[in-house]
Design a protein that fits this description.
homotetramer; alpha/beta; Aspartate Aminotransferase, domain 1; Aspartate Aminotransferase, domain 2; 2 domains; seven-stranded mixed beta sheet; four-stranded mixed beta sheet; 14 helices; pyridoxal phosphate (chains A, B, C, D)
Chain lengths: ~425, ~425, ~425, ~425
């Protein structure tokens, strides 16, 4: 039986996208599984593009949110002080900032990652009095006009239908392979007063590029960027929207990399339960914002405050969750390395933020389509969509994880076998 | 007893704003009332800047949402087809579009009004192959870089710390008083090939300018803009984020004004319960989007689909709600006219989207501060913050409404009396 | 015999323009007459678009230039000090600045008006630390990217094939007729902090718009612009490239209008003989340029220094030339008023910077074409090319002037008669 | 006796520059020598920054120009067809284009190199419908807003006091030394759809970067740029303003490098005698300009047509001039190599477009100052002004050339000796 998708097809704009890869209607979800209207259940290796690091509908978050709503807790309060916000701020301070000896102020922006990025860019420009932002090849930072100027993806950039200004581009770590030292390129371009590059307001980067193809920056390169930023009076913005909240093993993706960003953007898994929620962290001495200078109706989603607080208390009050992620990450790496060894791809990424570059977007798409038929939701990334991306919930049960990876392995084998057959 | 606000003050960025006018911690809210941690209850004439047109925590929306969460309904599904989305689309089609003989496709954007505006601007540019957007004096369309270029407010514009490009400005209806015909100005500028204005991709406007000072455009002027747009191959975008969802009496603010916008942006009260949710409506023949060309993690908030559907079914399945708004609007007008007659201000706006221009931002601020002490939450708008803005929930009980207006009247009288005493 | 124009047609780009209206090859010129290869002589009412205010090949300038070249005078010296430059600066100081009690420093820019404008815009932005420039409807300031952003003409703007940024537009004096006070519009837009207009770095304007249709600004409006500029910390730039050098009767077009611009751009007739030459005048306290910050190979054309000095000494050492212009201007006005009375057009402009609006570009073109056949070179201006523009050399002999105006009158009558015949 | 420079100091803007390095008043010049008011004569190794490739006041050009002026030849004719223009076009066709089997149309732009570049950029955007231009590190293309966006020099860029848009930057050949292949970088950035670089309207480059430090591009790299341009539908613009007109040995700098630019910009020595004159060459099938779409008062300087024609006839009617340049260039190279061997610098550039990188701007400045005292005019270039630039007239007598190089050698030795003494 085919799902009746006519209401979507007749009413929704052509801009819809993920639903095209997974043409069914979903109804409910729990943990690492998501169920369709036809009763079929899928293992979720997409996890809301890392928005569901703690899985779907975590029971503790659910309960807290239901209680909050039932008790007439504030649902919408602009940026009023609310009890829910206060509790979140306290938990974020207690469980995240203090243990890491980090000193950031929290700016609740409109509840999208792009909005957190827009705020970060504005602040960097305001603080430094400079215009340029340096972003990197294959970076993805959102699609509102300011954030989109930082995004490298040409398909999304073209969607603006106007020039995207204010941003200069430099190569990400190993953008041209191992022979060309991107750190040296960066440094020389900034040290040459006739290079056409000015010292920027800020550098913005992801420590692992999610949409860009699971490209992982080395600690050394990141430290070079930070050093050059300091030398030229520029700020360092880490966009931790996709890589943060434990995806690479630690709460922030940069914790073990020897850098101290001035500004950090967060969203996706921040609410714990996939609710719209974003924030921009900034060093207190950069906090020269005037009231409402960057504002927005939905900044500070109170429902999200509730679930985000539970997430922090449940998963980040000690190091046990991090250790569990590490174990799973090792398991994942072994499986992906084995797959690559067998079929010839390249394993990419770090922690539970991994993928396998299968060489072409067509092949990757076929593998994902095959996975879907077999009960696994999985997607691609990369400039050519050539990387099959494994973004399982961090809380996934090992048996589910194994099952999902088995489906991936079988699908990959099957697609590649049929390719070989075609070629023969 | 003063509320302990230290957690906000120590941890939140200076950018926070509304909380400065209402320095307390709110805990719960129901209907038109909101309660603080100290037990004090306030009547809410701010209503989340028109995000709470149906009041706080409407019992039917609450129940539906609690049931949905308890049943492991999808909380986050990127832009997957979900049952909740399908039901919302059906309800929007049945209760809104069909009865009005309107033909729009729905684009779920990132869940902020600014994001809906960014999508609208991109689409208008893509469709027409033109760059310029014409926005109007005192317009407010959000603060992400693309939307902010359309916003007139200098304080917010300056926050970008870079030039805002791609937008030309024209005077809104009666921007220079009754003597200068803004429609004529618009028409002549577009008809003069040396005016420096090119035929734009689109005109973007609010039918009543919420942030800009409750300025109401006449049907005649709006029709002129639409006619000029048609003559020059430009689209008409109505930003109905603040004025829509019944605020002016009808679901869309433009229903009785004789115009047919090509694109409509919606957010704020769209979810019914104040949850982050936004969409861009577009005529089907403009739907040339490629998949994911404008995307975003939280586009299509499933919790909001649930509550928004309830809102549509409960309030818009027949004309009774509109009629009730009309009655309240008349009552409101009488009260405001009486206030203005007594104290010398000017009544502004339309429907339940009203305000009183008291001549200066300082005075308006004092009145609002006095109201807060007396248990009323109310705010200002306008270029100089000179308009005290009445944005009560449309569902407010008449006794509450009266009580709130009494507080406003007393506060205004008291502030003005003390001014006179000072001056004497 | 038709001129053989094949070398131009085969070799020159389609961008060539004036030569299309006057399809012949010119060989020599003297005073107000220009001679073609076929021996035919034309009266010149175009005068290099006001670059030949002193006529072609003034004998004193010619002699001085020939002597200079024969004596191996420096032809090209970058911006070296040269004797020719020193003498020009002294003459400009003695004959122009001192008698008018004006205090300007001279910046020699690249030898085009557009370059002088580019320098003016850069300086205004540097001095004020602001980005925006306010330019006016129908203004023309050149076609390099910075200057073109100020130019109103849509045909030229489109030539950029990219957005023109950094400039906001306001209506010129009486841009919408007498009913709408452009000064009030300007003032209100700047005083409204939500208008979308920021206080600009500078206002740039022509006192009479040459290309824009011989629109003359009133002293009152100009004074309003200057006052508003002062109130908002903005500079006033008068682009006197076409209107200056005596065209309106005085050396600067603004001498009798009660304004004191901060920056003045000059070119066209500045060299006296039509040689490429431009400069930007700036108040000494604005002279915060760093050396070479705006540079260019041909800034300071030494041949032009020689002829420009002769022009200043010959025509501006006392008031006699101004008085003669006034007499001719009165004569011209009488003739144009009579023409307009007879044929129904509108007389435009000031001094010897006049034209007659004949209602349509087609009609104006036909009149000019007819004039050319009868021995008069004359062109159109205006947003629709609807103004037949009389830009005779200021030194034209009265008999020539009369003859030229007779040709114009006859051509106009003839074209209009044939139109009437067609219509009958 | 010190020259009295007060008229310049009191009247000219601080923006003046070269005159600061050579604080005297020049009066006359002939061939490779220039004479000051105090009678002192200097050898000219600056040659108007390559505007005087044929030396000062070439007797044949002088005579032709004097005759032309004396005979009332058109001095200023907008873009009318004139005899002088026709003769220049014929000579350019006969002596330059035909012998090289090149097929270009000629666009006379405003008479500055920057204006020719602005025209080239506009045309490339118009032809391709694309916005971006790719320019290279250390490129110099002028300082009007469009051209300045292509220029790499930070000092000049900052002079705009606003963002410079529409241009992306890539590394010039060997910008990062021999280890990093700039051609590979270019190719990979364009082939990666997520690099943030779009296929541009055009690449713009100099084959030898004059202002950027006499950096010479290899034929191989230039061919890579051209190939990548063709693959991506982009045009190739060679800015031959400084390197053209024989400076590198051939008329165009790219003649022997295996590339066929779509658009070529020319100025500086084009007029032969240093008169303001510029043009943009374009392949006929790109000639989609509309009439006057890029215009300007002084486009097509008739005096320059006269001298430029003489230059073409005298120097380019056969290959003898090129051969003589080659001989001088070899001589120059020997001398510079010897100097570098002795003092430790690096010889840069090609043909008669050479320099010696002495390691620091301070040292280079001291050497030039010492040269001036000894009767040689010479200047620096490079991002840090670290290259002493030898731009002698191509027509310089060998004895003068030797004398100038002797002064350079002595000055360099003397400065370096005194440095060593200081250090000891």
């Amino acid at each position: 039986m085919t799902a009746d998708l006519s209401v979507y097809e007749n009413t929704e704009s052509n801009v819809r996208s993920y639903c095209r890869s997974f043409p069914t209607t979903f109804t409910s979800a729990s943990g690492a599984e998501i169920t369709a209207a036809d009763g079929k259940t899928y293992i979720d290796f997409l996890a809301g593009c890392s928005s569901l690091n703690y899985g779907h509908n975590d029971p503790d978050m659910k309960q807290a949110l239901v209680d909050y709503i039932a008790g007439d807790g504030i649902a919408h309060g602009l940026d009023f002080h609310t009890e829910a916000k206060g509790a979140f701020l306290q938990a974020f301070s207690d469980h995240i900032l203090k243990p890491r000896e980090m000193n950031y102020r929290v700016q609740f922006t409109g509840p999208t990652g792009a909005n957190a990025v827009e705020a970060a860019l504005k602040l960097a420009r305001k603080v430094t009095g400079r215009d340029r932002i340096i972003a990197f090849t294959n970076g993805f930072h959102g699609v509102t006009l300011g954030a989109l100027a930082c995004t490298g993806n040409g398909y999304h950039r073209k969607g603006a239908s106007r020039p995207l200004e204010g941003v200069d581009r430099m190569p990400y770590d190993r953008a041209f392979g191992d022979d060309i030292d991107s750190g040296k390129v960066l440094e020389e371009l900034l040290n040459n007063p006739s290079s056409g590059y000015e010292p920027p307001a800020a550098f913005i980067l992801e420590t692992v590029q999610g949409e860009g193809g699971l490209n992982e920056a080395s600690a050394e390169w990141l430290q070079t960027v930070e050093r050059v930023a300091r030398e030229h009076g520029s700020l360092l913005i880490v966009d931790d929207i996709q890589a943060g909240c434990g995806r690479t093993g630690t709460f922030f993706s940069f914790e073990k990399l020897g850098i101290c960003p001035d500004i950090v953007t967060m969203a996706k898994s921040l609410s714990g339960m996939g609710l719209p929620f974003a924030m921009t962290l900034l060093h207190p001495d950069l906090d020269i914002w005037s009231p409402a200078e960057h504002n927005g109706t939905f900044r500070g989603n109170n429902h999200a405050f509730v679930t985000a607080r539970v997430a922090l208390e449940k998963f980040w009050s000690d190091s046990s969750f991090s250790q569990k992620i590490e174990v799973k990450a090792e398991f994942l790496e072994e499986r992906l390395v084995a797959l690559a060894a067998k079929h010839g791809g390249t394993v990419k990424g770090r922690g539970m933020f991994r993928g396998i570059d299968v060489g072409s977007g067509e092949l990757a798409d076929e593998i994902c389509a095959k996975c879907f038929k077999r009960g696994l939701i999985i997607e691609t990334s990369g400039a050519h969509g050539e990387v099959v991306k494994v973004l399982a919930p961090l809380t996934i049960e090992l048996t589910q994880f194994e099952k999902g990876l088995d489906i991936l392995a079988e699908s990959m084998a099957s697609v590649i076998a049929s390719k070989s057959a075609d070629a023969a």
